Amino acid sequence: MKLAIVVPISPFEDSKVVEDSIEHVKSLGADKVVYVIDKNGEKDDRVEIAKKMGVEVVERKDRRGKRAGAINDAVKFLSDFKPEFVLIMDVDTRIDEKTIWNCISALLKDQNAYIASAKRYIYNAKNLVSETIEAEYRFLNFLLSKSAFKQFNGLIGVLRYEILREGLNEKAMTEDADFATRMHAKGFKAILVEGKVFEQAPMSWKDFYSQRKRWYFGGLQLWRYRKEMKKAEKIVRISWLSALTLTYFPIIFLPFLPISIPLILAYYRKISKLKVFFALIIHIFVLQASAISALLDYIRRKEVEWNAIKRA
Q1: How far apart are CA 55 and CA 34, in angstroms?
Q2: Which of 129, 195, 205, 269 could anchor a disulfide with 118, C-beta 3.0 to 4.6 Å?
Q3: How many other C-beta atoms lie within 10 A of the C-beta of residue 27?
Q4: For 196-228, what is each residue's pLDDT tens digit?
Q5: For the chain, where are the alpha helices, taking DSSP H only?
């Protein structure tokens, strides 16, 4: 049983962020580690840094297919190695070996599963924006545990290599949701396991708006699979349709926000953290604005920009 780890690196990530990622990934004990680096110019030193730190590198001089293209190139790079499983991570992903093993065990037990992953948590809750997203993630984790259509952001988790060889859609704005939809339409499923996957949240409302606008735009592209999804189980189809409709009207959840007050107090145990409740109101309006903007761009066939997000 062989495990490979793939980490796509965009041109926006600086050298220190890449170094921190490699130090963490190397500690996970995978059989092979591949970093796919989209170069940001001739003076880009990240490729040499990665090689010196002992990981294999796929160097890309263009951004063909962006993240989807980078993962596809990594899958081709692994064709001789032929791992059974591939753990996809982002540069800011932090995960432990126990969670990885739980994912592999789940896939070994269920041959009908294409991916296994765990709940998401924020580890850079350093200001009001990131703290608010941390609170949002706790609600999203609850929904993820109940949904029949499970879509893990970024496809961050352990996937079967043979299924991953089918390739990610390089024209999709959200390649993770696109791949998840195609797999569910074919009758495969995603498994949520015990464990934690940590990642960084946007630290400004501007970055948050840009990120969610891209997510909303990618969700609109998924309607192309409505015929294929008719083959999926009814409960999966309902969950998929809910994700592509209700999430575009976050404003309807505004009257239910007061329910979060006792939950915030119980989690933080500080009265001062009630500021998160008021920030959640802003959060909903930013989400609604990004959903409307994405819809307008989609109607006008205007592609959404993929912007860099500031790291902690």
Answers
A1: 6
A2: 195
A3: 10
A4: 999 999 999 999 999 999 999 999 999 999 999
A5: 15-26, 46-52, 66-77, 97-109, 128-146, 161-164, 175-185, 205-221, 234-243, 260-268, 275-299
